[in-house]
Amino acid sequence: MSQHYDVAAVRQAFPAVEHVVYLDSGFQTPLSRPVKEAYERFLQEGFETAGPKQIWLSRLEETRVKVATLLGAKPQEIAFTKNTSESMNIAANALPLHAGDKVLMIDGDHPNNAYAFLNLQKKGVEIVFIPMTEVVNAESFQPYIDERTRAISMSHVTFHAGHRFDVESVGDLCAQRDLYFVVDVMQGIGVVPIDAKAMKATFIGSGTHKGLLVPQGLGLLYWDAARIELEPAYMAAASLANPPADFIARADNMALPATAGRFELGNFNLPAIQGLGAALDLIGKVGIENIQNHCFDLGDYLIERLDELDVGLVGPRNREHRAPHIYVIALPAADWLDYFTSTGIRVSPERDGIRVSLGMFNNTADIDRLVDAIRARNAPGMPQARTAVLSKLG
């Protein structure tokens, strides 16, 4: 494998990986030292001074700039939310959709994206699901677009098999057909480079507890600031262009700012935002391209080792269509999950097998431990693994 960065040094920032073979970053990442220290700093400041509020808010804006840099966006196009689900719901309800309008989605995509739009059916909006295939691009959606189609919403990377869809071509299609385009980047952000402008996305939503290394409870929303017609479904004083200094609400003071702040409600998750700032510093130091390439190399190594065992892979094998860090092994989760846990290997059950999801801290030794565990359970002839593969193929 190529050495894209000092993996051993990065591992020192994640103490948990020395005690468990952690192959579950698609669920959540282990806490790193820089993020832990950011939380502790926040707690200590709150403990000692009851909170330097303006300092905390200043750090929030610094983190907003870092998020914007990561996404190739402007700071005023970034809002902080609770999680991916809230981001997708904000986006779905901001679109000016009416009875008879149609939204296209992908069958089997993450449910928290789908439900945000399925909830619009009560307004008469039609949700149409196109088939999920190994490759999804503009051509996949083209046959389903008609004069009633108003929007497309999809994931960049799938959580259950590691598809990496061609969101740029879909974004081009949306721009050509004047459609709104909403993208869930939760499974790719922090590992896969993301360019909001190249995607031509109207909204991009994500949480932060996977590739962005922060505990649950914080989300992000990118909004194309050129889409000034898009307004929030709910409002607070913090959402206004000019929040009332006397805290008295007035019907003639409801103008929205020309920033993504229109989608925020205030009372931010300040400790998590400070943690995110530290996480983005770590990601920036290592380099997002380096993280992606490292995970791709580990994925190639994983596929090679699985092929040696004649154990199948669910989802795409080609780098062009697969995420660098998400792989589903064709072993029944009901039979294998507890076994892996008992051997000190952390993975996740998924629809079609066992999901292995990589992080910046993983190395070939982690892959070897996983493969050795499979071999040990099935020695000498590996009948269980082979049976699982054949059942998938059949």
SSE layout and pairings?
Layout: H1 7-11, E1 21-22, H2 33-49, H3 53-71, E2 78-81, H4 84-94, E3 102-106, H5 111-118, E4 126-130, H6 138-141, E5 149-155, H7 167-177, E6 180-184, H8 196-199, E7 203-207, E8 219-223, H9 270-286, H10 288-309, E9 313-314, E10 326-329, H11 333-342, E11 345-346, E12 348-350, E13 353-357, H12 364-378, H13 383-393
Parallel strand pairs: 1-11, 3-4, 3-5, 5-6, 6-7
Antiparallel strand pairs: 2-8, 7-8, 9-10, 10-13, 12-13
Helix pairs in contact: 2-9, 3-9, 4-5, 10-12
Domain Aminotransferase class V: 21-370
Protein name: Selenocysteine lyase/cysteine desulfurase
InterPro entries: Aminotrans_V_dom, PyrdxlP-dep_Trfase, PyrdxlP-dep_Trfase_major, PyrdxlP-dep_Trfase_small
Radius of gyration: 22 Å
What's the number of helices? 13
The rough form would be described as globular
Structural class: alpha/beta
Give the SSE string.
HEHHEHEHEHEHEHEEHHEEHEEEHH
Strand order of the largest sheet: 2-8-7-6-5-3-4
Global mean pLDDT: 95
Helix content: 25-40%
Instruction: Give the distance, in angstroms, between the N- and C-terminal Cα atoms.
Output: 34 Å
The description of the largest β-sheet is:
7 strands, mixed
Number of strands: 13
Question: Poorly predicted ranges (pLDDT <50, ≥5 residues)?
Answer: 385-394
Approximately how much beta-strand content do the residues carry? 5-15%
